[in-house]
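Practice problem 4.
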């Protein structure tokens, strides 16, 4: 639990530093005045929520088969990561 709190605090500090940095930038990555537009706020929030759901689903898909076989759940995630990396490598560097 302490590790989770520490990671959350570090993430909050880094996000705050990023927002302050972007406010000072001449050409920010994402202009802060966009958040005054309601549809932008809603669509950004929904996109973030969907990304969290997708991340949880991917972790769950990798974890369940490992638990059924009596192995440590991380081994399934490592296999899935290796598969994703190899797929990306083949798609980018492979024959065209």
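Answer key:
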């Amino acid at each position: 639990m302490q590790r989770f709190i520490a990671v959350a605090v570090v993430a909050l500090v880094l996000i705050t530093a990023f927002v302050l940095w972007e406010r000072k930038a001449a050409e920010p990555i994402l202009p802060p005045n966009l958040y005054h537009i309601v549809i932008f706020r809603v669509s950004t929030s929904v996109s973030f929520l969907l990304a969290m759901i997708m991340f949880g689903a991917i972790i769950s898909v990798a974890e369940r088969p490992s638990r059924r076989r009596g192995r440590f759940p991380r081994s399934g995630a490592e296999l899935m990561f290796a598969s994703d990396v190899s797929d990306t490598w083949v798609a980018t560097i492979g024959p065209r």
